[in-house]
Amino acid sequence: MKPIWVVDDDHSIRFVLEKALVREQFTVRTFANPREVMKALDEDSPQVLVSDIRMPGGSGIDLLTAVKARHPGLPVIIMTAFSDLDSAVSAFQGGAFEYLPKPFDLNTAVDLIRRAVEESLREEVAEVAPVQAPEMLGQATAMQDVFRAIGRLSQSQVTVMITGESGTGKELVARALHKHSPRGQGPFIAINTAAIPKDLLESELFGHERGAFTGAQTTRRGRFEQADGGTLFLDEIGDMPFDLQTRLLRVLSDGQFYRVGGHQPLKTNVRVIAATHQNLEERVRQGGFREDLFHRLNVIRLRLPALRERREDIPMLTRFFLGKSARELGVDAKRITEPALERLAGFDFPGNVRQLENVCHWLTVMAPAQVVEPKDLPPELMAAPVSASAPSAPSAPAFGTLAAEMSGQPVGPSGPIAVPASALPGEPTAAVMVGTPAWLADLEREARRRLEAGEEGVWDALTRQFEGCLIHTALELTRGRRIEAAQRLGIGRNTITRKIQELGLDD
């Protein structure tokens, strides 16, 4: 973050403000007059400028005008004595973020400057267009169809609806559509309508006037204003509150809207790209989404395939994400074996490409060696079944057989019973989410058999099998090294020692 600049001919004011802001972990630079500030602006710029109005060698109002000409989005706070109130009002009308009357309470001044910093950072994130669109990779036929559609739409400004499951890369496609369109040099503004509380979403989209509601200290531009001349990406549009859908429809119809608390109509020239993982036709039938808005958005529909529909892309994406994670962490990139890639290709990835990227980040941090083997993959991938449409892969360790041998407990109709830790009753697992594997079906049958028979201690019996199985397998893989086994299992050293004694695994 850039420093805060404080301009005042009074040394005591500069000193007090600097010390207070440094205590709040801000970097501060002070100036005695506007001339020094203008000279410094030739080489640098502040995050926030705090300036007095009346100073020898220049006026704070003139400084405000000059600074705003160079940096229109820079928050400027004007300090003024009570007798300068008219000047302060003029400054506010000329674009000042706020005015600070002297003498001021130091805590109030720091809070005001902090709000200005937050606004400045928020505007930077919202307005800076990406230098380059993120990578989009895919050799599968389904992805090639997507690329061709982006190409056909490259010279169009038509509204596009992107559908697909969460994690399939809808925002990446929206950015690509923007980059290759006639609006590519304009701003790309993205907003997730599901991530913002209903009472704040209207202000986020359309902006608000100063004093429109409690806490509205300044006038703020909304996303439609920020995206003027560019593209506005409305993610998860299916979650937009019904009453806001009416306002959105009005903007899409004539490009006109009002800020919250405003009375002057504003015009905007924005291309809208919307995205959703929901079935909007069903939402319309249920009365949760306006039919006229649906038809306004659904001019061109682009469906993104789930990762399980393009399994042939998984090896290429895996190597790409492993390299990306290594660069971000400043380490050497991990290599991955073909058997491990086959195992990845057999997983259904309910979180799609985003989940695969997270897996690669996990491997970069957690895999013990530079070469990733099947045994190094995350537990949820090891426990999940291999899809019939995917290449065969080495099977996971025979947990159930080991548990049955150790405990002497009976096995289920289709084989031994075993439960991974994350699949204990009441805990959701990745395996359950992507489909019920055989061992989990076996567990259900065995649990049902015991419970219907009135057997006591079912929980303890099956839990002992599970714990014994995991510890035995971990010790086998680490050749008896308990500390390493505990680390791989994600439990403490004392825990594994106690469990070994309780389960009689020392024998």
What does this structure look like?
With 507 residues, this protein is of the alpha/beta class. The chain folds into four domains: 4-127, Response regulator (Rossmann fold, 3-Layer(aba) Sandwich); 143-305, Rossmann fold; 310-383, Helicase, Ruva Protein, domain 3 (Orthogonal Bundle), CATH 1.10.8.60; 399-502, Arc Repressor Mutant, subunit A (Orthogonal Bundle), CATH 1.10.10. 46% of the residues lie in helices and 12% in strands. It contains 22 helices and 16 strands. A five-stranded parallel β-sheet has the order 2-1-3-6-7, sandwiched between helices. Strands 9-10-13-8-14 form a five-stranded parallel β-sheet. Helix 21 crosses helix 22. Residues 125-134 and 391-436 have low confidence and may be disordered.
